[in-house]
């Protein structure tokens, strides 16, 4: 470990590793620190990702792919099933990862690009000078060190402290966090080609149950619910009820619990000398809770912007605004749209969800135009289109901005 780097990255999840790799490939001196002794472990994730987006960042490798998924089956409260199969995305659906190996592979890529990686190294505070972040205070094997950097990137996940230390408001209200519980199970007997989703207020208040195949008759069986809508009962209660009813003979091999921010874009993700990325910047999708790809996208943008800013000799918010602008017009656009849809759907009764499912049952999504889809939705629930008007406004605004 040196006493000074161009960039220090706090946290070696997908966001941190991609930022480290990108900045190191540009020739910057990079240190990535991770508080745990093993990168990627313990896992708090259902491990599902889109293939197309993943390939933008790393070549798929069978060592960390557990299942190659061909489609999704979504179940409404009355059992109506909607299938979204592979043609919908030209044969490109998703993978279920082994994150313990995947996260380590990403960190390895950053090391290969030239970044230094230190595990068992916890950031305890930021070094501030004249209104600029100038480095990180760290604790490593009982010793404390001050390490200087031109730019610090906070990639410390959902429980991030870096944002708070820098004066950025990253607090999340209970209505904006999905509380999750998950079992790795054997013996569910699911078709390993599909991901399964169960929605409805009885099964998962303002959330959903997921079953993601992990190969060899293993599956991640989990639930995310909105804390504010579930009353006294916790996510694990709903998960146990679901498992008892549907898979009484399956066996639990692992368990994890965690929170997913579903608040949409926060107001600020930069200060002088610092950028926040990934879950630390609340960049997960408000509908699905998925955050791996967004974290990687944000990491890439932050790595590039760190290089641009350091090359210009300006690490103030004036230069780092390039990061804000880029992530807001890419992943931020999708996050904002998802928030509108999430807010609409979490207000639905089970009866409304059933009626929506009936109107979409048997639909071939791959050959359906947007107009057909809108008509089907309109038939199911006229209020739905009115509630989603913000989404259409956003799409039109984006298209206009894009053309300009
Ligand atoms: C139950 C559950 C299921 C999920 N399922 C999916 C899914 O199927 N698909 C999907 O895309 N997303 C899913 N997510 C979300 C996904 O896990 C996150 O969005 C993703 O991991 C975010 O990546 P990140 O790099 O920002 O943060 P993380 O992966 O959380 O990495 C942050 C890292 O920072 C380290 N760290 C924290 N503080 C410090 C410190 N002070 N000093 C040094 N290191 C520190 C942590 O140890 C950690 O390694 C799920 C989340 C949960 C809880």
Can you walk through the features of this model?
The protein is of the alpha/beta class and 404 residues long. It has 3 domains: 4-47 and 98-172 and 265-329, FAD/NAD(P)-binding domain, CATH 3.50.50; 174-261, D-Amino Acid Oxidase, Chain A, domain 2, CATH 3.30.9; 335-403. 34% of the residues lie in helices and 28% in strands. The chain contains 12 helices and 18 strands. Strands 1, 2, 8, 9, 10, 11, 17 and 18 form an 8-stranded mixed sheet that branches. The longest helix is centred in the last third of the chain and has 21 residues, at 292-312. The termini are far apart. The mean pLDDT is 90. Bound molecules: flavin-adenine dinucleotide.
The CATH architecture of the largest domain can be named as: 3-Layer(bba) Sandwich
Structural class, from secondary structure content? alpha/beta
Low-confidence stretches: none
The distinct bound ligands, ions and cofactors come out as: flavin-adenine dinucleotide
Portion in beta strands = 25-35%
Distance separating the two termini: 48 Å
Q: How many domain units?
A: 3
What is the mean pLDDT?
A: 90
Largest sheet: 8 strands, mixed
